[in-house]
Amino acid sequence: MPVGAGPIPVERVRELVAATTPTEPQRLRLKFKFRDKKGQVGGNGGASIAPADSLRIDMRGPLGLGKGAAMVVGDSAVWVSGSDVINRIVPDYRLLWAMLGVARLPADSATLRGSETADTVAWEYATGTDTIEYRQSKGTAPGLVTLVRRNGRVLGKVETLFAPDGAPASSRLLVPGTPARLDITFTESTRPATLKPDIWTPPES
Question: pLDDT tens digit string along 189-199?
Answer without folding.
Answer: 999 999 999 99
